[in-house]
């Protein structure tokens, strides 16, 4: 079992590492679902922790459909992130019809050579998740898919996540389950779904507030649950 935790600052990253997180997803704009953090923040976080850091590449929170200017921005960010030494990136591209935008995805993956890639919760907005998974399975660089099973909270999509996890395993992709998970529900969710990786943000923050920093006690409790799973 592996626990990924959202960090939005150097302080978050240090707390994540010190209290049991196995990997960090580094973002800005947590209430917007995450956008690309600044180069300065990425550099500082990479210098502050030893656990893997995966960096969000999302130029804005307007949609997951990107025009040429957006793609050029993302390409520049990916190249910079790679040079800084991050372990991976987190991205997602959709067409206006809510299918995986393969032409855009191919361009981004070419720039991401050597980086582990997570396809983020754009997946949850896809019209047909199984069809989207089939497409993503054709790209070996995409190591995992972050999903809540198409629901605002993963807790409301247990059956769908069970199905998607089985399909992911058939394609050598890891399903990373996230959104809505907290310490009280984590053990039963892992047991019911059988997933091997979980992703937590607000659920391990002080007062359950997205804009507060990581709560060491909550994160330690989550890490302990994951360790026993």
From TrEMBL:
Assigned GO CC terms: cytoplasm
Annotated Pfam families: CutC
Location relative to the cell: Cytoplasm
InterPro entries: CutC-like, CutC-like_dom_sf
GO molecular function: copper ion binding
Keywords attached to this entry: Cytoplasm
Chief subcellular location: cytoplasm
UniProt-listed PANTHER family: COPPER HOMEOSTASIS PROTEIN CUTC (PTHR12598), COPPER HOMEOSTASIS PROTEIN CUTC HOMOLOG (PTHR12598:SF0)
UniProt record similarity statement: Belongs to the CutC family.
Name of the protein in question: PF03932 family protein CutC
Species of the source: Paenibacillus contaminans
């Amino acid at each position: 079992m592996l626990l990924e935790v959202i960090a939005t600052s150097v302080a978050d990253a240090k707390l994540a590492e010190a209290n049991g997180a196995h990997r960090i997803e580094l973002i800005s704009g947590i209430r917007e679902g995450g956008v690309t953090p600044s180069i300065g923040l990425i550099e500082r976080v990479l210098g502050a922790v030893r656990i893997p850091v995966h960096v969000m590449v999302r130029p804005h929170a307007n949609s997951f459909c990107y025009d040429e200017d957006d793609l050029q921005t993302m390409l520049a960010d990916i190249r910079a992130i790679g040079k800084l030494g991050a372990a991976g990136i987190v991205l997602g591209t959709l067409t206006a019809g809510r299918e995986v935008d393969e032409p855009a995805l191919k361009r981004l993956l070419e720039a991401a050579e050597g980086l582990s890639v997570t396809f983020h919760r754009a997946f949850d907005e896809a019209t047909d998740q199984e069809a989207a998974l089939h497409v993503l399975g054709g790209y070996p660089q995409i190591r995992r898919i972050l999903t809540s099973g198409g629901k605002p909270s993963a807790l409301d999509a247990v059956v769908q996540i069970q199905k998607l996890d089985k399909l992911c395993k058939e394609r050598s992709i890891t399903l990373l389950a996230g959104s809505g998970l907290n310490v009280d529900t984590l053990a039963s969710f892992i047991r019911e779904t059988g997933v091997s990786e979980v992703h937590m943000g607000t659920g391990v923050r002080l007062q359950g507030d997205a804009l507060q920093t990581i709560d060491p006690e909550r994160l330690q409790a989550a890490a302990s649950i994951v360790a026993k799973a």
